[in-house]
Amino acid sequence: MSLNYYTGSKLQIEKLDLDSRCVGCGQRGLDLVRPYIPRRVIRRDTYVVQCPSCNLLQACPMPDAVELSRFYENQYREEGTTGFSEPRITNRHRSQAEYITRAVGKLENRPNRILEVGAGFGQLLSLLKKEFSESAFFATELDAKCLSKLSDLGVKVKRVLIDAGVDNPFDTDFDLILCSHVMEHSPNPGGFLACLSQMLRPGGHVFVEVPNCGVPYYWGEGDFPHLVFFSRHSLMKIFENTGLPVKECYIAGPGAVNYVSPTLFRKTNIGSLVTEVKNFVREVLPDDIRDNLTRFVGRLKRRHKKNAERSALLMMHDELIEKEYERLFFQPNPDGIVLRIFGSKEQK
Fold it and tell me: Is 92's pLDDT higher than 50?
């Protein structure tokens, strides 16, 4: 067990349930890697641990479904938080649509019913509707800002969190299920993928894209809100364990080194001193006082114009990156920042 990045007390380490199961393959006995960054955003004393069997990295402990639903309904798409607060179609969306169209073109039958889980503003669906105009489109999403956009697209949408043990919210199964940058947010990606499999008709297909954490990465301000960190090996392993044979899996997008612009992100930070003070407050205050203070500060931050400025900077950063590395979203790149996988459900 390596503690090179660890700064907490031995008592906090002992509270971690390192004998809990890997959320990917179910293996017991996880290795402590480092603190979760930023720490205690959803829950106090959160760390990143790794499975020695499939190499999957995951947050420990995981938040529960109530915490996750509340976050994705109200906070995930606030200005200045993620950079995805506007319904802009990017080269990543275009390259996904091109990849899916090409993969479906190799199949015997075109999909009649297409579902996107966690569809956001529906950028990917809007592109695919042009390619599959004869298909019926469905979506799940939690954020109220996105629901009206999806409805305007003519998509049948349900406001539900799809995860392990959740029943199909629609009265039909699907020929193709899309899941773009959602599975890394699930506290149980194996169960999540099994849930998608149950909603697929026999012979149906699933497209998943997640960040590639098999290369050095830096996603804005750290780990949050991702709960699981995939390499190509660990993602393939989850598909294998779920019984979804993989037709294709490759890495695409610009390299992680190219994607990050430290100078730009420094402009969007409040400052290292304020960050240190925040971390200190989180360390010393009791849970109830800290949570109330966090909610109060959160309300103030949401009203502050810095959030809109930061969102604009993040989007400008993405636009510059996409313009410079556009071709890398449309072709394999072994050092790329995204993993794309296309799997199928076997015929009965």
Answer: yes
